[in-house]
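User: Can you help me understand a structure? I only have the sequence.
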Amino acid sequence: MSDIALVIVIMAAFLHAGWNFFLKRSLDKLAFIWSFLLVSVIVYTPMFCYYWFRVDIPIQGWVCIIATGLLHFLYFACMGGAYERGDLSLVYPISRGSGPMLVPPLAVLFLHEKIDPLGGLGIALIICGIYVIHLRSFAFVSFMAPVRALKHGASFLALMTGLFIAAYSLVDKVGVGYVEPPLYIYLMLLIAMVLLAPVVLTKKRAALRREWSCNRYSILAVGVVVLLTYMMVLFAFRMSKVSYVVAVREVSIVLSAMYGLIWLKEQYVVQKLTGSIIIASGVILIGMGH
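Assistant: Let's start by predicting it. Here is the structure, written out as tokens:
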């Protein structure tokens, strides 16, 4: 993985953890998601127009755009439901951690990518670190806690979020080969916003007003950051293997753990710090891989 791609993905991870923190603090998660998607679509309309009138999108590109738009709609819906039911330190590790477990074998199977030993070891360390972050203690009985947690609503929805992350990561790796990333990501967010609109505008009008009244600055900030974050990752897809990009993005778990420990006063400090060190080691190994 090149140094430039590594820096881009780590910056994207920092921004991604940040807007997930604001999402967790919101009053109504789905209303917050739809609001920042609307802001993003409005703010980046000039960028969309610039690319729209200068490039032609082939049929393969449109297939990827529609597919990723649908997958992101499901991703946002599941993520919102998970944050309504669970803590940041619970939902984020499961949702972001299940992606690296699924993407590498799928990328090898469908995209014919090859993972070198150093990169494979880095991915394994990240997955291990994600598991450790989720532990409540280092007692033997606690090592089954992450598995048992999947029976609960928040963990199940977080796992579903991870499945959609793995799916759209593979689609996006192909899609950015046909469509310029700024145009691709704008259309993807637009489709997700339109698909969420019927539920939000019919059942959550009061929540929308309340969310804007209490969290307008967070909505505006996330609206600007969310497209930028995805765009950075799509550019990284063009420069590196999808398995490496998705794995390095999981450094955001370290950041989200810190946000939870410092600002949300969440528990299990030792486990989260230990897991963070393991994840950081994995990121370094992936950065050394080629």
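Now, to help you interpret it: The first helix runs from residue 3 to 25. The radius of gyration is 18 Å. Let me know which part you'd like to focus on.
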